[in-house]
UniProtKB/TrEMBL annotation, chain A:
GO terms for molecular function: imidazoleglycerol-phosphate synthase activity; lyase activity. InterPro entries: Aldolase_TIM, His_biosynth, HisF, IGPS_HisA/HisF, RibuloseP-bd_barrel. Heterodimer of HisH and HisF. One of its GO terms (biological process) is L-histidine biosynthetic process. Belongs to the HisA/HisF family. Its EC number is 4.3.2.10. It comes from freshwater metagenome. GO terms for cellular component: cytoplasm. This is imidazole glycerol-phosphate synthase. PANTHER family: IMIDAZOLE GLYCEROL PHOSPHATE SYNTHASE HISHF, IMIDAZOLE GLYCEROL PHOSPHATE SYNTHASE SUBUNIT HISF/H IGP SYNTHASE SUBUNIT HISF/H. It holds the Pfam family His_biosynth.
UniProtKB/TrEMBL annotation, chain B:
It comes from freshwater metagenome. Pathway: Amino-acid biosynthesis; L-histidine biosynthesis; L-histidine from 5-phospho-alpha-D-ribose 1-diphosphate: step 5/9. It catalyses: 5-[(5-phospho-1-deoxy-D-ribulos-1-ylimino)methylamino]-1-(5-phospho-beta-D-ribosyl)imidazole-4-carboxamide + L-glutamine = D-erythro-1-(imidazol-4-yl)glycerol 3-phosphate + 5-amino-1-(5-phospho-beta-D-ribosyl)imidazole-4-carboxamide + L-glutamate + H(+); L-glutamine + H2O = L-glutamate + NH4(+). This is Unannotated protein. GO terms for molecular function: glutaminase activity; imidazoleglycerol-phosphate synthase activity; lyase activity.
Length: 277, 243
């Protein structure tokens, strides 16, 4: 049976995990590979490392990160952040990453997705989309497109794609862009709600549902996880995976607890097995 | 559709020492108790060799990636990994002469584990892109996965397996039904002899995901990407290589 996934996300700046972590027993809670190996042992199905290093001279660390992670992490992992060319992607994949996530560079030059899919296969190509709702949308309470002002819609969509770490609007609708990205070669969508990110008040379910229905590839829901029920809601909305950072970093919940809750909701998920058994 | 461009799984890696020895990694701890078999990941230029090497080491083996005939001749067991197209993998094996080297060692009774494309190459032939001959160590063809309507190809992700009743394959390694493994593939082996089937997954319909026949073993999934349970499968193979 195909199983849905729980994915911890690690934001990395100049080689260090930057969202706060509250791990006991790690020699160095800021080391992304040590944290990733711990998540693997605790039942993570996959890992995402997002390099948010602002300066280009700190960027070389991303290949080193992939290399170290490949030696110590025995689940698939994706690396994103600052990937601009096929050569960038090649270096990260050669170092041992299973997939590469692209964002701004593919918005600026969508052909990049095709070039990457032709070279590596679409299963290696993750399109990261940062989306923000137009006025009138909410992440929870019911609304319909008909309630929104026509001039607020972006390419007819109630969500707009942002790039540059969420600072720059693109004029692209999230649904339209997701469709195009997949047609061009993306094998998976990493969908982050900018309205939800950091709030711990739940994923953007209408957004998740809309994208999952629009594309034939798996969607990873991101942005807003605060409770285990939020993970369940995202998977029920059509996401193939639920991504979270702070609830795991701060030990609010363990990955095992997340798995138990998801399974209890009747969703197929890889059972956590104590590595000591 | 874009998925048509997808290739079977490709990972490589290079790197450093394992994580802290204080980690509660019982797979490694168990491994430390027994002899460490010397395994060779046969290097024919295809696939996620480094990831497999690192996982074998974590599972309690001494592993090396090489095409050196003398090293292969001295190995306690061989691993054939690989990704991508069957035709290309079969061609590289044949042109390197490693196909005969591997078959000679198998004839001597050396355990062999094929992973992903490496498992498919154990079989007689594949229908992929017009067809090609495999190593012929296991009877049966490799054919396209036929998922139910609405399921995508390649099949990518975690899939829970059902073990064949009474299987004595070392790959099972004591794991229960429902153990899940990470898959990336569009083709599957269809063993002629049902007794060779060790485990099946289900992607709309059942498919064979682990096989054993004598000392020849295969995993369609990626044990090196399947966390603790994947390491257990590799541990099972490593232990079989010490006997």
């Amino acid at each position: 049976m195909h199983l849905k996934r729980v994915i911890p996300c690690l934001d990395v700046d100049a080689g260090r995990v930057v969202k706060g972590t509250n791990f006991v027993g790690l020699r160095d809670a800021g080391d992304p590979v040590e944290l990733a190996a711990r998540y693997d042992a605790e039942g993570a199905d996959e890992l995402v490392f997002l390099d948010i290093t602002a300066t280009s001279d700190g960027r070389g660390t991303i290949v080193d990160l992939a290399r170290r992670a490949a030696d110590e992490v025995f689940v698939p992992f994706t690396i994103g952040g600052g990937i601009r060319t096929v050569e960038d992607a090649q270096a990260v994949l050669d170092a041992g990453a299973d997939k590469v996530a692209v964002n701004s560079a593919a918005v600026a030059r969508p052909e990049l997705l095709t070039e990457m899919a032709d070279r590596f296969g679409s299963q290696c190509v993750v399109m990261a989309i940062d989306a923000k709702g137009v006025p009138g949308t909410t992440r929870g309470a019911a609304w319909s497109v008909g309630d929104l002002r026509e001039e607020d819609l972006v390419e007819g969509d109630p969500w707009e794609v942002f790039v540059a770490g969420g600072r720059k609007p693109t004029g692209r609708g999230a649904v339209a862009w997701a469709r195009e990205a997949v047609e061009r070669g993306a094998g998976e969508i990493l969908l982050t709600s900018m309205d939800g990110d950091g709030t711990t008040s739940g994923y953007d379910l209408p957004l998740t549902r809309a994208i999952a229905e629009a594309v034939p590839v798996p969607v990873i829901a991101s942005g807003g996880a605060g409770t285990l029920d939020h993970l369940v809601e995202a998977l029920e909305a059509g996401a193939d995976a639920a991504l979270a950072a702070s609830i795991f970093h701060f030990r609010t919940f363990s990955i095992a607890e997340a798995k138990e809750r998801i399974a209890a909701a009747g969703i197929g998920v890889r059972p956590y097995r104590d590595p000591a058994i | 559709m874009s998925a048509a461009r997808a290739q079977d799984h490709d990972t490589t890696g290079t790197g450093t020492a394992p994580a802290g020895a204080e980690d509660p990694d019982v797979v490694a701890a168990e491994a430390a108790d027994g002899p460490r078999p010397r395994l060779v990941v046969v290097d024919y230029g295809v696939g996620n060799r480094r990831s497999v090497e690192k996982a074998l080491e974590r599972a309690g083996a001494d592993a090396v990636v090489t095409d050196d005939r003398a090293t292969i001749a001295a190995a306690d067991g061989l691993v054939l990994c690989g990704v991508g197209a069957f035709l290309e993998g079969a061609r590289r094996l044949r042109e390197s002469g490693l196909d005969e080297v591997v078959k000679d060692r198998v004839a001597d009774g050396t355990p062999l584990l094929g992973v992903c494309l490496g498992m498919q190459l154990l079989f007689d032939r594949s229908d992929e892109r017009g067809g090609a001959a495999g190593l012929g160590l296991l009877p049966g063809p490799v054919q396209g996965l036929t998922p139910a309507l609405g399921l995508k190809l390649p099949h990518i992700g975690w899939n829970s397996v059902t073990w064949s009743e009474g299987t004595r394959s070392p790959l099972r390694a004591g794991l229960p039904d429902g153990a899940a493994f990470y898959h990336v593939h569009s083709f599957v082996a269809r063993p002629e002899d049902p007794a060779d089937v060790v485990a099946r997954g289900d992607y709309g319909s059942p498919f064979v995901t682990a096989v054993s026949r004598g000392r020849v073993h295969g995993a369609q999934f990626h044990p090196e990407k399947s966390s603790t349970d994947g390491l257990r499968v590799l541990r099972g193979f490593a232990v079989a290589c010490t006997r």
